[in-house]
Request: fold
Amino acid sequence: MLINAPRGTKDILPDQMSNWLAIENKMREVCARYGYDEIRTPIFEHTELFQRGIGEGPDVVDKEMNTFVDRGNRSITLRPENTASVIRAYLQNKLYSASTLVKLFYMGSMFRYDRPQAGRLREFHQFGVEALGEANPAVDAEVILLALELLREFGLEGLTLKLNTVGCPKCRPVYRQKLTHYFSDKLDELCGDCRRRYEKNPLRILDCKVDGGKEFVEDAPKIEDCLCDECRDHFKKVQALLKAAGVEYELDARLVRGLDYYTKTAFEIRCDDLGAQAAIAGGGRYDGLVEELGGISTPGIGFALGIERLLLALEKQGKLPTVERVIDGFVVSMGADSYAFELMLMLRRAGLTVLMDFAQRSMKAQMKQAAKSGARFALIVGENEVNERTVTLKNLSTSEQQSVAFNEVVEAMRR
Reply:
């Protein structure tokens, strides 16, 4: 019986890898311009890291984590997001000692046990950045600009930046109390998830996919009426910097993000072509998270971008990028396999990309395969070439061919 990949996972096939490589290369290029360094963390961590980092209440912790007990009787979780892991690495490896502002980016697999659908898999890939150590609103603006610039460099259109502030531990309890009072007589109208959120984190009711569009949710109190002076000033400065950069945005009082660690700035970038799963990137500030995970009080901000959703949006807009694969030569052997193999190895060791037919087919079949491969040259060897230590070099674009000494083939191909 054939064994298929687990539900919610997907193979990335060879003909798709060119798209993935082009995207990853662009991500690294843009991050380099902004001064971000790449980090890679383990795909599994101690479960406590995510329970403490994400907090109790969000669906990620309550419903979606892939958790198991290992052979040492330790609770282990496949990472559902990477911010907590990056901060764990930041603290464990004392990255803060190198600079007051540490700027990191990552890309890799994340895991959430969710209902699979377009743009949402149980194993999905994220790109993200984290900037740790600086509370200046300019860092918020830079992070948002990085996200927008990256998406626009792929040529994506129909992007909308949504912006909000979720306050801080000083002012958010006031807002939470207002929401609790407001929704207290509306519990029967809320979905089951929101009735649970009402007890743990009523802010999450605002971005519920079921209740979020209901009129009484739209009319809920706004956080802007509860902000402390520090949060209000921070948010004004972020907006001023975005305006100075010519960035258009929409204020969205219902944007609270799905994780409890966010403070102050929250943002989301949506793409019209993604329908119900319109959010392509999102993030915000998390000034209390480093301390929650055992460090000293350290401000931070970041965002994550779903690579599958990015690919889906690019495909819908006909803008999938590719990395061109250059094949320099294809060795065609007419009964001179040892000599052909020696030639192929010499060319590869010289840095050229060279293929060869191992099926010992006819010259016509091999030449057809050489042309199909997109190779620039066919390198034909037979009895005469072996005896004379030469190679017949054929340009597959012009059909011109010449006899070249074995030790001069590399130079001839490059010339």
